[in-house]
Amino acid sequence: MTTRCNELNFSGGPGALPASVLQQTQRAIEALPETGLSVLGMSHRSAWFISLVEEAMENLRGLLGLSDDYDIAFMQGGSSLQFATIPMNFAGPAWAPPQYISSGYWSRRATAEAQRVHRCGVAWDGEASRYSELPDLAQLDIDPRAAYLHYVSNETVEGLQFGEQRTPSSVPLIADMSSDFLSAPVDTGRYSMIYAHAQKNLGPSGVTVALVKRALLERIPKGLPAILDYRTHIAHRSNYNTPPVFAIYVLTLVSRWLRDDIGGLLAMQKINERKSAMIYGTLDALGDAVRIHAKAPWRSRMNVAFSFGAESLDRAFVEFARERNMTGLEGHRSLGGMRASLYNAVTEQAVAALCETIREFAATRL
Ligand SMILES: *Cc1c(COP(=O)(O)O)cnc(C)c1O
After folding, report:
1. Distance of CA 311 to the CA centre of its chain
2. Averaged pLDDT for residues 212-238
3. Deepest in the core among 11, 34, 85, 141, taking most CB within 10 A?
4. Whose CA is nearest to atom 14 of ligand 1?
5. Probe target for ligand 1 pocket from 81, 134, 155, 179, with the most ligand atoms within 8 Å of CB
6. What are the structural domains of the chain?
7. SS3 content of the chain, % helix, strand, coil (to 5)
8. Stretch 199-212: mean pLDDT, rounded?
9. Beta strand pairing call for 70-75 and 208-213
10. What would the pLDDT profile of 78-104 be if each residue is shown by its tens digit?
């Protein structure tokens, strides 16, 4: 019963984790096979943990094909702390104000937080379309002297995703990939920085991955608090103060699962494409009875935000699905409606079951 619920977890985050990872985690809470101690009581100074961090970094490098021009840091404070530390570290008087794409709930949050730290420009705002579409980044007129261009690769709340895009080459590109990191291959070389917290696609909450191009580190001003300075975490191999040992452990298990069980990011992408095609196909077949928030070209493969057009119907559907062990389908509090999150660990079988439930609901209640 519990397992069945875990398999049918469509939560926006913290999201589903692979069944095999949950099983290994359960054993590790009792005793890690490598040390005989609970993972929850393992010292961050132990040889076990130090080599775990190295493995996690290696696995991420392998999955992403990340070059040695980049450093990796495992940090705390979630993606929200990154919203603040990015302008602190990488904007400054030597550059024009950083530019932000304001394309939905999370990029608006990132922009607002950055503006508390530094003057920032908004290069594009999706308000006119009620955040249902995305711009062509390469078409935007961005000041080439801008410190960087920041965008959110997948708008988790609205269900909008940039996907493989042409990007401007004139300014350093920084992307929040919190909700689609490791869901498909990415051309990491186009970015100066990529960050993603773990709790949507790579593990539990508590750890955030930052990939930073070494050249960008040279910009960091003197005098930042050490804990807010990316160089601190990089120099200490993500072990400056007590790191989130448990979250990094589970993230490492997920990276092994992606590599060994799934077969890498291209294989993951194919699975994710099949999952999202299944659900959009099911919804499109209902015609006017359903509204999908994202306009077609920008539909996310990770988060599907939709509504049956009336709050009472949406609530009835969430309840209908809950009776079938499906959870996490309520839309984000800012948008309402429903949201089905199809993160890596959500299986094709789970999505097929959700589609069946949608069809059944439509046939009996719409
Ligand atoms: C969920 C989410 C966040 C918020 O992350 P926290 O770790 O809660 O700070 C930021 N960005 C995106 C794209 C998200 O989906």
Report:
1. 28
2. 97
3. 85
4. 178
5. 179
6. 3-14+263-365 (3.90.1150.10), 21-261 (3.40.640.10)
7. 45, 15, 40
8. 97
9. antiparallel
10. 999 999 999 999 999 999 999 999 999
Q: pLDDT of 252-270, one tens digit each?
A: 999 999 999 999 999 999 9
DSSP letters spanning 89-119: HH--TTSBPPEEEE-SHHHHHHHHHHHHHS-
User: Which pLDDT does position 1 carry in this prediction?
Assistant: 44
C-alpha 8 to ligand 1 mean position (Å): 22
Quick check: CB of 300 below 6 Å from ligand 1?
no
How crowded is residue 101: how many other Cβ atoms within 10 Å of its Cβ? 24
Catalytic residue list: 106, 176, 200
Residue linked to tokens 């696609």? 201
**How many whole angstroms from 269 Cα to the centroid of ligand 1?**
21
pTM score:
0.97
CA of 200 from ligand 1 middle (Å) equals 9
Q: Please tell me whether residue 207 adopts helix, strand or coil conformation.
A: coil
Tokens representing 330 are 């309520």
Residue 156 Cβ inside 6 Å of ligand 1? The answer reads yes
Ligand 1 centroid vs 83 CA: distance in angstroms? 10
For residue 165, what pLDDT is reported? 77
- CA of 78, closest atom in ligand 1: 7
C-alpha–C-alpha distance, residues 69 and 211, integer Å? 10
Q: Average the pLDDT over 9-26 and give the result.
A: 96
Q: What is the mean pLDDT of the chain?
A: 96
3-state secondary structure at position 196 = strand
